[in-house]
Specification:
Layout lengths: L2 H5 L6 H11 L11 H22 L1 E5 L14 E5 L14 E5 L7 H4 L5 H8 L8 E8 L5 E3 L7 E2 L2 E2 L23 E3 L6 E5 L28 E2 L3 E10 L5 E2 L14
Antiparallel strand pairs: 1-2, 2-11, 3-4, 3-11, 4-9, 5-6, 5-8, 6-7, 9-10, 11-12
Length: about 260
């Protein structure tokens, strides 16, 4: 045996090392995967939780229930309402198309009815079925505004400024842009703090703030019922989602930019 042999430890074959390693510690166990049906159920639950979370905090889908917002939004259109604009003190602005909860007495029992079975309730939870109890209208006046109907051209005025509403309203069969039943001579406001005055774009067929104004000959009318509390506003309509051929962004008309704020 040479000096080199004495100083060099005995080599161990790869086979012996592998065998010893195998005896020294147990082999790693393979991870078990869930059955396909369990994974599918888990994914559906996660998707439902995500959809409900988005609906509660960011955006929500709604159906258009009537013809009151024609010609822009027609019955059974699907719209997406975003809620972020009214966070952290944000409030509805003139010209916004908003969805809000019924302040009380604005809807009939059938219009206010929501889902009547478990499947419909689940679909409504993610915005795939009408919830009931909501309306969609355009904000005409905000806190402090006075709305007047109508000038010689049949136009609504806000704080003394007439609105050019021809691009978005339906005027068929009406004498002015603000009919309260058959009356084109009324005034509303000043709008209370924390409230809005709303109207449908289909002015001859919209149960909006004008319908709840107190007329001189009424004795059972409650002043103030014509205004919608901001707390009931769900959000602002962002886009017309469906049908796809009519997909469109719902913006704020330029005519409202000329209206001065309350003095």
């Amino acid at each position: 045996m040479t000096s080199d042999d004495r100083g060099t430890p005995a080599s161990v074959s790869d086979g012996d090392d592998a065998s010893r390693s195998s005896r020294g510690r147990p082999a790693a166990k393979k991870k078990k995967h869930l059955p396909l049906w369990q994974e599918t159920i888990l994914l559906l639950i996660l998707a439902l939780v995500l959809a409900v979370g988005i609906k509660a905090f960011l955006a929500q889908a709604f159906y258009i229930p009537s013809e009151s917002m024609e010609p822009g939004l027609i019955r059974n259109d699907r719209i997406l309402v975003q809620k972020v604009s009214y966070w952290f003190g944000g409030e509805p602005q003139r010209g916004d198309v908003v969805v809000f909860q019924d302040p009380g007495g604005w809807l009939t029992d059938s219009e206010a009815a929501g889902p009547d079975n478990v499947v419909a309730e689940a679909m409504a939870a993610v915005g795939l079925y009408p919830e009931g109890g909501h309306l969609v209208k355009r904000v005409i006046g905000v806190a402090g505004d006075t709305i007047t109907c109508c000038d010689d051209q049949g136009r609504i005025s806000v704080n003394g400024v007439p609105l050019d509403e021809d691009p978005y309203i339906r005027e068929q069969g009406i004498r002015c842009n603000g009919p309260m039943v058959a009356n084109c001579n009324w005034e509303a406001g000043p709008v209370p703090e924390g409230h809005v005055f709303v109207m449908g774009d289909n002015r001859g067929h919209s149960a909006d703030s004008t319908v709840h104004l107190c007329r001189p000959d009424e004795t059972d009318c409650v002043p103030g019922d014509e205004f919608v509390p901001n707390d009931l506003v769900v959000g602002k309509v962002l886009v017309l989602l469906w049908p796809l051929k009519r997909f469109d962004v719902v913006g704020r008309p330029e005519s409202f930019a000329d209206v001065p704020d309350k003095s």
